[in-house]
Design brief:
The complex is a heterotrimer of chains A (194), B (384) and C (103).
Chain A lengths: L10 E9 L4 H14 L3 E6 L9 E9 L14 E4 L19 E5 L4 H8 L4 E5 L1 H8 L6 H12 L4 H34 L2
Helix pairs in contact in A: 1-4, 1-5, 3-4, 3-5, 4-5
Chain B lengths: L2 E6 H12 L3 E4 L6 H12 L6 E4 L3 H14 L3 E5 L1 H16 L5 E6 L13 H5 L6 E4 L3 H18 L3 E6 L7 E6 L2 H8 L26 H30 L6 E4 L6 E5 L2 H15 L4 E6 L1 E3 L3 H8 L4 E6 L9 H12 L5 E7 L8 H12 L7 E3 L3
Parallel strand pairs in B: 2-3, 2-4, 4-5, 5-7, 6-7, 10-11, 10-13, 13-14, 14-15
Antiparallel strand pairs in B: 1-8, 6-12, 9-11
Helix pairs in contact in B: 1-2, 1-6, 3-4, 6-8, 9-12, 10-11
Chain C lengths: L34 E5 L10 H4 L7 E2 L6 E2 L12 H5 L5 E5 L6
Antiparallel strand pairs in C: 1-4, 2-3
Classes of the chains: A alpha/beta (194), B alpha/beta (384), C mainly beta (103).
């Protein structure tokens, strides 16, 4: 499947909002490593701080064909992913997001509602990653389904490279069955994006 | 062939340690150094390295154990940050005074108080006069390569070496790191040939005897030529390492500096951010450049003086203070420019204390102030 | 005190190491003494209590047990602490002011 969006910026920047323990950092690392496997230059870093389970956390990804020189935080991301919908409100998730940027939110609500809540007038994509995760792995682990949505919407990396990354990282830790279910969740999220 | 891996700065340092396979490693956990030793401890537990890992009860003990093992003739490495380095203080001078080639990763973090875990350079800058060689690294790749170079340098001139990287920004950020072939790196690093090891009973020696007014001064006097030697050896060993990595190991890196009208001097990760800003400004025709210090101890005064001599406006960015005096990097640059008889307008800028973010916009503004002579006295970037 | 000429920084081993074993022997401490242990040979039974009691190890011995004998104190190192006189069960060591011995 062809990517729905081609990015022309020299450095593609993603910001991920989640809560401590939800895998915002892992998600950032998966995207970055999948891009690295495709020969890209990458950066993935969390908003630095002590681990705080449940507290709002942010992580960043930069992807480019050229060397990434800047180590400053991402200010104007091309894509913002919100792993936990309850962050909308307490956190200004659309801050700095370019008008032609994309906001991807894990929610069971409509895109219109999210637009109203975030006051973001650009492209808003919704994916019910929590429901998908509950259906596939049986736990509220929405970070990996979110990757499926991101891949479909942006085409920043191939679905196959994300799946390979998941296999590489999870197979030894959680076994084949759970890994396959995780990948199934990613695929479901991927397919849910119209 | 180099293998491109996605590694954090901390993992990159641990990767260097894996290839070096030191005999002994004594360390105590402290944020943000912990992932260095965590990764290395994994290598030890998995039997990938043969190192003896000594878990100690403090950094004072960590460095003490390193002193003992290095004197015994073992290749010895450790890592620390912030308060950990401060607690090592007493033993830092013993390591350098006894001329022990210990290599230590410093993951730069602010010192208390107020208590803070984020990046600034007050830890290693505070230790700059303790007789250790100090090398600063812009990113994970440099942290990895500098660690390899440091082992050879330490053992060549018999001085301990600190390899510094920015806490969290470098240590916890994942990026592309080229990891070079194990065998090539291992043959570059070579075997330690210890100088007068304590465990050689055929040639018994005493380490650390009392030296009062009779010999203390002479022993300290020896450390100065050792530092001069370190400066030469750094380049020679760097040339050897270049054969593997293809990278240069200058005392500093000049970026768009030759024809620059305004320049920034800075070390570690902010140098990278400055490069990104320079790229943008150069496209607009602005003549701006960077001098990134890599070797801070021994300090390359002459060479820095030559490189900056003809630049009219220079800002030196320090991520630490020297309260009541010139900031550490600024002071050295001022010295170098005095010797070079430069007439440059030189400005001291303090930034990023306690991990305060520095944005591309901050550096862009600074360059524009430099180009229009709007900088007055000492500047604080990003403070309210 | 040793009157050996002190060396320059280029001549000494690096790191302040002492590379010669037993070099403490060169550091003569006999001139620290203000009291001298005088050994009264006629009272001495060579019971061997004094040699190991000397903190400076300066009471030499000769022969082996059971025929071991002590010899005169090595005054190059004896600091005159008087421990030997204290431990002697036969009062065969007397502490006398050093000034009386200086020629």
């Amino acid at each position: 499947m062809l990517p729905t969006i081609c990015f022309v910026k020299e450095i593609f920047e993603i910001r991920i909002h989640g809560r401590g323990g939800q895998g915002a950092k892992t998600a950032a690392q998966f995207i970055a490593e999948a891009a690295l496997d495709q020969g890209k230059r990458i950066q993935a870093f969390p908003e630095y701080g002590p681990e705080r389970s449940g507290a709002p956390v942010v992580s960043f990804v930069r992807i480019s064909d050229k060397q990434i020189k800047s180590y400053a935080p991402v200010v104007n991301p091309d894509v913002v992913m919100v792993i936990d919908p309850t962050l909308i409100g307490p956190v200004d998730v659309a801050e700095g997001l370019a008008k032609d940027g994309i906001l991807i939110v894990n929610t069971s609500e409509t895109a219109e509602k999210i637009k109203n809540k975030t006051k973001f007038n650009g492209k808003v994509c919704i994916v019910d990653a929590t429901k998908i995760a509950m259906g596939s792995v049986g736990k509220n682990l929405p970070n990996t389904p979110m990757l499926g949505a991101l891949v479909k919407i942006t085409g920043v990396v191939g679905l196959e490279s994300v799946n390979n990354k998941v296999k590489e990282k999870f197979l030894d830790k959680i076994g084949e069955e759970k890994t396959n279910r995780t990948i199934e969740g990613i695929k479901k999220a991927y397919d849910s994006i119209q | 062939m180099a293998k491109i891996k996605a590694l954090t700065g901390a993992e990159a340092s641990a990767e260097a340690m894996r290839q070096i396979n030191p005999d002994v490693c004594a360390a105590f956990p402290i944020t943000p150094q912990t992932p260095v030793m965590q990764k290395f401890a994994e290598f030890v537990a998995d039997g990938i390295v043969k190192s003896e890992f000594i878990c100690v009860e403090s950094e004072h003990s960590a460095m003490s154990a390193c002193v003992g093992s290095s004197a015994a003739g073992a290749r010895t490495m450790t890592a620390t940050s912030s308060a950990g380095l401060a607690l090592m203080w007493e033993i830092l001078g013993i390591a350098s005074g006894l001329r022990l080639p210990i290599v230590m990763t410093i993951v730069n973090r602010a010192l208390s108080a107020p208590i803070n875990i984020h990046c600034d350079h007050s830890d290693s800058m505070g230790a700059r006069d303790q007789g250790w060689v100090q090398i600063y690294s812009e990113n994970a790749q440099e942290s990895y390569e500098n660690t390899l170079l440091a082992v050879r340098l330490a053992e060549k001139v018999l001085l301990p070496v600190m390899v510094c990287q920015d806490g969290f920004i470098t240590s916890h950020g994942v990026e592309n790191v080229a990891v070079y072939d194990d065998n090539k790196v291992k043959s570059f690093v070579g075997e330690l040939k210890p100088y007068k090891p304590l465990l050689n009973v055929d040639d018994p020696v005493t380490y650390g005897p009392l030296q009062l007014t009779d010999y203390y001064f002479e022993t300290k006097r020896q450390q100065e030529p050792a530092m001069e030697e370190a400066k030469k050896a750094y380049q020679a060993i760097g040339k050897e390492l270049k054969k593997i990595t293809g990278n240069d190991y200058g005392y500093f890196e000049e970026y768009q500096l030759k024809d620059a009208k305004a320049a920034i001097v800075v070390l570690n990760s902010t140098a990278g951010t400055t490069k990104a800003v320079i790229d943008k400004l150069r496209q607009k025709g602005k003549k701006v450049g960077l001098l990134k210090i890599k070797l801070f101890r021994p300090f390359p005064y002459e060479e820095v003086g030559r490189a900056l001599k003809n630049i009219s406006s220079i800002a030196v960015l320090d991520r630490s203070e020297s309260f009541g005096a010139n900031a550490p990097v600024f002071g050295e640059i001022k010295n170098a420019l005095y010797d070079a008889k430069s007439k440059a307008k030189l400005h001291s800028c303090i930034f990023g204390l306690g991990g305060r973010n520095i944005y591309e916009k901050d550096i862009e503004d600074l360059f524009s102030k430099l180009l229009t002579n709007k900088l007055k006295g000492k500047e604080y970037i990003g403070v309210r | 005190m040793s009157k050996e000429k002190l060396k320059g920084y280029k001549e000494i081993p690096i790191g302040g190491l002492i590379t010669e074993p037993g070099s403490a022997k060169k550091f003569k401490t006999g001139d620290w003494r203000s009291f001298r242990p005088v050994w009264l040979q006629d009272k001495c039974t060579h019971c061997m209590i004094c040699p190991p009691s000397c903190p400076d190890d300066c009471i030499p011995t000769e022969g082996n047990l059971p025929n071991i004998k002590r010899k005169e104190t090595d005054f190059d190192y004896c600091k005159g602490c008087g421990i030997c006189a204290q431990v002697c069960p036969f009062k065969a060591i007397e502490m006398k002011e050093e000034s009386g011995f200086i020629k």
